[in-house]
Amino acid sequence: MSVDVHQHLWTPSLVDALRRRTRPPFLDGWTLVLDGEPPYEADPADHDVEIRRKRNAHLDLALVSLSSPLGIEHLPPEEAWPLIDAYHADARALPAPFGAWAAAPVTDPDPVRLAHVLDHAPGQAPGRGLAGLQLPATALGDARGLALAAPLLDVLEERGLPLFVHPGPAAAPGPAWWAAVVPYVQQMHAAWYAFEAFGRPRHPRLKVCFALLAGLAPLHRERQLSRGAAGRGLVDPGLFLETSSYGPRAADAVIRELGIDVLVAGSDQPYAESVWPDPGDPAQRAIDHAVRVANPGRLLSRKESP
Question: Residue 121's pLDDT is what?
Fold first, then answer.
């Protein structure tokens, strides 16, 4: 089963809910207004379900998620929940090949509500709905953030479902690419090392997937070890890295550090396209099968991590 674990799709209910808002984040027609970033002109075709379904006809599963850089998860609960509920209402009803990650406000970490969302997807048997939970890296970059999110992570761990860590809101004081290249990467670095230091001891069986190769955080392992960290040569089988926006050079470096078994394919559609591996290259077939089929299968299975 060929899988893309990282896509975004603004469903009609979410679009309507964003258009009803008068302060960021909100939509003015198809113009997205965020705090600290210039207005973004979205392409309606990017969020047309039928167009996106045709784009992904080669996939067996494409997981969509709430766009965490919008900052919805960081809103006060009375503002966050209507947007998240609107997202869930449509995301769980998307046609094949789409699936979805759940969302939750980090300002109101409600494990009972999350359990209900995960266990009672309309039209599906309990426990067979959403793939897991996405949270913004901005909420998981230190011990305090992980402690606040712990009740949500407990719900995932109890069900054998994964956490997907995605960049959160970021100011863009420079060129258009600034937020994606500078603060997003910094956020992912912090989340990767914070989970290793503070999250894994509390959640020994939780599977976690970090977007954009965790900003290449694993490549700083030599420096980490030189400063006294333990665990030389150990690879956590419950941690996965998603490949969006990186190509073969970055992926090869991560493979040299952690091995091929931790990588899963993600494209970040509609903001980017998958560039690695090339499924048409015969030399890449084994890698393609690992990152698009075998490794996502382990990430998304309900079996607990070792």
Answer: 57
